[in-house]
Design brief:
mainly alpha
Length: 284
């Protein structure tokens, strides 16, 4: 069951990113971020009314609020990265999330990765290199320099780092309540705390009524992604769910080509595939 939920999460993840990129041409990043995380609330609330209130365990509110604060920063940066750079040069770098989780585990807990973990790290790094393989004409360091020069790639690496931390708190919050209740709490808290940024974004770039249904659509897509992810996390290890979710990177690369005419499809698909393979090995 958790695999099916994780696959739904992966597809919704890919479409939410491509749609956020399309909206960023006409809507401020802050407004898109607020819509993505907050407009999932009506769907989650309706589902919660059907399911009923769960028993809230100790530690829920601390973990939930920490995740909300981290995601206020990380989701804003994610949308910013998507607005600045091609999908195929941004989304795949989220594969570094489980890699960073290995690193933080080593620093905080002294847990060193085994041989499979090291292989996964090598594959993720190789995939990041291969995504810019055409830059090798400028020397072996060309692909690495290309990542350093691409603002979206750099920002998405920071997003991956932040999500490697927030994923831990998500797991605690879901287990301490229910996927639906946590989604309701998360969306409501995010929406309230993010209001100053929303107001700033609306002042910078006012939104007309024709855009409102589009913002609700991205909120709906994110509702599907969040609810299915949290439900899957409750049934399986968070690292397994995130590994399947990251397979949506391949669909994101294809959508980049289809919707935004991005170049080097074959090379970037190859790089993304290597990164996904690394994520799967790390998760296992």
């Amino acid at each position: 069951m958790w695999v099916s939920l994780a696959v739904v999460t992966a597809v919704a993840f890919a479409f939410s990113g491509s749609y956020a990129k399309a909206l960023s041409r006409r809507v401020h990043v802050y407004v898109i971020t607020w819509a993505m995380m907050t407009l999932a609330l009506p769907w989650a609330a309706a589902l919660l009314l059907r399911e009923g209130m769960p028993v809230i365990q100790p530690g829920f509110y601390r973990a939930a609020l920490l995740s909300v604060v981290l995601n206020m920063v990380s989701v804003t940066l994610e949308v910013k990265a998507l607005s600045l750079s091609p999908l195929s040069l941004t989304v795949p770098f989220l594969a570094f999330t489980p890699l960073f989780m290995l690193v933080t585990g080593f620093v905080v807990l002294g847990e060193a990765p085994d041989a499979k973990g090291l292989l996964g790290i090598v594959l993720v790094a190789a995939g990041a290199y291969a995504i810019n393989l055409e830059k090798v004409r400028g020397g072996l360091l060309g692909p690495i320099k290309a990542v350093a020069k691409e603002p979206g790639s750099r920002i998405m690496l920071l997003v991956a780092l932040l999500w490697s931390v927030s994923a831990v708190y998500d797991k605690v919050a879901v287990v301490s309540s229910s996927p639906t209740f946590y989604t309701v709490f998360f969306s409501a808290a995010f929406g309230i705390l993010y209001v100053p940024a929303l107001v700033h974004g609306l002042r910078k770039n006012p939104v007309g009524w024709p855009m409102v249904p589009r913002l609700f659509l991205i909120g709906t897509i994110c509702a599907v992604m969040i609810l299915s992810q949290f439900a899957a996390v409750r049934l399986a290890l968070a690292s397994y769910v995130i590994a399947v979710k990251r397979s949506g990177m391949l669909l994101s690369v294809v959508l980049g080509r289809v919707l935004f005419q991005e170049k080097s499809l074959a090379v970037r698909l190859f790089g993304a595939t290597l990164m996904i393979a690394g994520v799967v090995i790390i998760s296992i």
